[in-house]
Design brief:
Elements (H helix, E strand, L loop, with lengths): L6 E2 L21 E3 L14 E6 L14 H9 L11 E7 L5 H17 L4 E5 L5 H9 L5 E6 L16 H6 L6 E9 L1 H14 L3 E4 H4 L6 H6 L3 E5 L21 H13 L5 E5 L10 H17 L14 E8 L4 E8 L5 E4 L16 E4 L1 H8 L5 H11 L1
Parallel strand pairs: 2-4, 3-4, 3-5, 5-10, 6-7, 6-9, 7-8, 9-10
Antiparallel strand pairs: 1-4, 11-12, 12-13, 13-14
Helix pairs in contact: 1-9, 2-3, 8-9
Length: 392
C-alpha cells in the first residue's frame, strides 16, 4: 500500500523551532513528511503520528480540522521523553470530497498501519473519526475495546454519522467487533437518566467525572483494557481547555488528562490514542493546543514503559492469588505483576464456540482494591459487570 498518496506534507513553518540551550527538542527525533523530504517509513518508528483535517460532521464545533498543526507547533518544541523515541509523522491525511471519503481513507490507512503492529497517535479533527478507526480494527477482524474520555456518550440519534452519534453507528455495524465501550468522565446533566439507563442495558462501562476525578488511579485498569483511547476536549474543564465551542466549567483538569494519556501509553493493549475536537478559534494563547501537546508527550513517555505486561500462567513474573468467597460458591483468581505491581482478575467466560473470540477478554485489568474487596468476601463490582457481559 502506497501511503504517501493519502497525505499532505507539513508546512516547515509549523514544525520550525529555535534550538533549546539545555535540552534537545522532540522534533529532532521525528521523521516528518515535509516538502522535499522522503515519506517516513512507519515500520521503523516507535509511534506513528498522523493528523486528520476533518470537521464537517462536528456538531457546533466547525474549525477543529486545523487543530493538528496547532498541536504540532508545541509538540515539536518539547524535550524528548526518552532518548530512544522514534516517531514517524506522516503529515495530514488529505480530506476527501465528502466526510464518507475521509472515513474510508482513515479506515484504510489506520487498518494498514495497525495490521503491521504500528502504534498510532492521531490528531483530529472531530470526534466522529472514532467511527472509521473502529472500522480499521474491524478490517483486521479484531474484537476491540474503546475508551472514550468524553463528557457525553455519543449515542444520539440520526441516520448521518456525526460527532454526537458515532457510537450508535458503531453498534449497528454487522458483523460487530466492539466488545466494550468504556466512558471516562461523563457529566450527568449532559446525558440524562434515560441515556444512562440505555448504556447500562447495553452493558457498557461508564464512569462519571466526579467518580474518577478524586481517585484517578481508578481509571488506569479501564485505560489498560482499551485498544483505542479517544479524547474529546469537552471532557476537560473550560478553564484548562477553552478551545471548544461546547465547553463546560466542569471536567478533568489538564494534569489529569496527561496522567490518563500516560496510562494509555503504558498499556501494551492500546494501539491508538486520539485527540479530538480542539478548535483553535476558541483557544487562548494556544493554551489548549499546548495542553494536547503535553498529553501527546505523556503518551509517548508511557509507551517507553511498556513491558509486555500480561499474565501467563507459566510465567514467574506474576503471582497468582485464589480468593474463595464463602456463601457464593466460587473462587476469584487474581494475578499480580511482580515487575509493575499491576493486577488482573479472571472472569469465567462460558461463551459457546461461535463466541470463542471473546474469551481472550476474560482476564480483566483491575486494582488492588478489587482484590481487597474479594478478601472481605464481597464480589467486586467489576467482576459482576464483566461476568454479565460474558454470560448474560
Amino acid at each position: 500500500m502506497e501511503l504517501s498518496g493519502y497525505f499532505e506534507p507539513i508546512d516547515p513553518r509549523v514544525v520550525d523551532y529555535e534550538p533549546q540551550p539545555f535540552h534537545a527538542a522532540l522534533g529532532e527525533q521525528i521523521s516528518v513528511y515535509a516538502p522535499g523530504q522522503p515519506f517516513p517509513n512507519p515500520e521503523e518508528a516507535s509511534i506513528v503520528l498522523l493528523g486528520v483535517a476533518e470537521d464537517r460532521r462536528s456538531l457546533y464545533n466547525r474549525g477543529c480540522a486545523i487543530a493538528p498543526d496547532h498541536i504540532r507547533h508545541y509538540l515539536y518544541r518539547l524535550a524528548p521523553p526518552h532518548p530512544d523515541t522514534r516517531i514517524a509523522d506522516l503529515g495530514n491525511l488529505a480530506p476527501g470530497a465528502t466526510p464518507e471519503d475521509t472515513y474510508a481513507a482513515v479506515a484504510e490507512v489506520a487498518g494498514h498501519l495497525l495490521s503491521r503492529g504500528c502504534t498510532l497517535l492521531l490528531l483530529g479533527g472531530s470526534d466522529d473519526l472514532v467511527f472509521p478507526l473502529y472500522k480499521a480494527y474491524a478490517s483486521t477482524s479484531s474484537i476491540i475495546n474503546i475508551c472514550s474520555v468524553d463528557s457525553r456518550f455519543n449515542l444520539d440519534g440520526g441516520d448521518t454519522i456525526n460527532s454526537e452519534n458515532y457510537l450508535q453507528h458503531i453498534i449497528l455495524q454487522q458483523p460487530n467487533y466492539l466488545f466494550d465501550y468504556m466512558n471516562l468522565g461523563y457529566q450527568s446533566y449532559f446525558v440524562g437518566q434515560e441515556m444512562t439507563r440505555l448504556m447500562e442495558e447495553l452493558k457498557f462501562t461508564t464512569h462519571r467525572v466526579g467518580e474518577i476525578q478524586p481517585d484517578l488511579e481508578r481509571s488506569e485498569p479501564i485505560v489498560r483494557y482499551a485498544d483505542l483511547v479517544a479524547v474529546d476536549v469537552s471532557a476537560l474543564r473550560q478553564s484548562d481547555a477553552p478551545a471548544n465551542a461546547n465547553p463546560s466549567p466542569h471536567g478533568f483538569y489538564g494534569e489529569q488528562l496527561c496522567q490518563i494519556a500516560r496510562y494509555a501509553g503504558m498499556s501494551d493493549k492500546t494501539s491508538c490514542f486520539g485527540l479530538f475536537e480542539l478548535n483553535p478559534a476558541h483557544d487562548r494563547s494556544g493554551q489548549t493546543a499546548h495542553l494536547y501537546a503535553h498529553a501527546a508527550w505523556f503518551f509517548i513517555e508511557g509507551y517507553h514503559y511498556r513491558l509486555g505486561d500480561f499474565p501467563r500462567p507459566d510465567s514467574p513474573q506474576y503471582k497468582r492469588f485464589t480468593v474463595p468467597l464463602e456463601g457464593h460458591g466460587l473462587d476469584i483468581i487474581f494475578y499480580k505483576s511482580l515487575r509493575t505491581d499491576r493486577w488482573w482478575m479472571e472472569v469465567p467466560c462460558q461463551a459457546p464456540p461461535s463466541n470463542a473470540r471473546y474469551q481472550r477478554h476474560s482476564l480483566i485489568p483491575c486494582n488492588y482494591s478489587d482484590y481487597q474487596q474479594a478478601l472481605e468476601n464481597d464480589i467486586p463490582e467489576l467482576w459482576w459487570h464483566y461476568y454479565n457481559r460474558f454470560n448474560g
